Predict the structure.
Amino acid sequence: SDSVALTIMGLGTMVVALLLASVCLVATVVSLRPSGMALHRVPAFSWSMFIAGVAWMLALPLLLANLVIIYADLRGRPAVDFGREAVMWEQVRWAFTAPQVFVYAVPALGIAAEVVPVAAKVRQKFFPVILGSIAAFAMLGFGGYLQTAFAGGQAQAFFADPSDRWNDGVVYMLQAAVLALPVLILLGGLAGTLRRGRVRAPQGWMAAGLLSALLLLVAAGLNLLRSVAWFEFLGTSMDSGVADAVLIVALLGAAGGIFYWMPKLTGTKVANGLGMLGTLALLGGAALAGLPAMIAGMLDQPDFDTTQFVNASFEIKDEFEVLNLIGAIGFAIAAAGALLVLAEVARVSLAGDDDAGDDPWGGHTLEWSTVSPPPLGNFAAPVDAVMSESPLLDRREAATEDA
């Protein structure tokens, strides 16, 4: 039908736009670094966007190819076949479920790695290890090989047949097993930074960044549990529960980044109380939207399947209705949190008070060395050669030694 074709074209247009944006992000990080800023000295958030851009450039062309196949198949049939159209979702669902969905949350790890050292007011030790963990998480999240529509069923989990320890699902299981390790390494580094530092009053941006990384670790652990075939969780609502939680966590990390860089963008701080309220709403929304679906999946509630829906074989058992209601409430809370963040950003942007100063947080990276909001071109003259990942912290330490 025309409505299905328009939907496919709209999604395809969005994929093309994301691909072009990814190219711009990767090219910017590679070509516009100042003198002395090797890739291992790139700010953590810039690095995460660079890595995420590379990962998106690997996965999104596959999604675009799926959409082209779907569109050609749709236009090549003389009549509408609702059963066949329902299978279309199965051709693209790999892009919206684990492990691929974790790739969309890679920037949240970069935000956490960027803001925690600033909040602690100390240098991040083993910074290249932190960057490596972000890169490993993005690469381990690649899910383009899980083309279940062409494989004839769900992705095979390791030990799908307990008597066969080396079946086709070994890659999938190992991927799920290792996915949590980079997040654990990153959180260990951030925990050491917090222990060495001095956080006086917790800010909304620090809480949002750190909590997003913690929730990603929990989601990766639950994804490992989901992938073990002995438990038979694949194909249950645990699939969508993990994906929903990760996507809301990505929003939580984005909120932390907005709170952190808002003074630089507009010259005005986001109210810390409203920032914390938005953080808590997104945190609660992620938990309430994801966990009930995961629990229902452990109790054998099937995931929504379009082919089952068309065949009228998709049923919700009575005992799952409460869990599904809680999940719906979680989505509403997360939406309210996102709207609260957007409303506060709009208020701050329209206020134009410019009362935050050029560097209200004591930032470690170069953007905080120019005025807020920055002028056209950012810097009037070339900046000094960068000697570490924290050039502004280097300047403060040098000034203290000279004094």
Observations:
- Residues 44-76 form the longest helix (33 residues).
- Residues 53 and 264 are 24 Å apart (CA to CA).
- The chain has a mean pLDDT of 83.
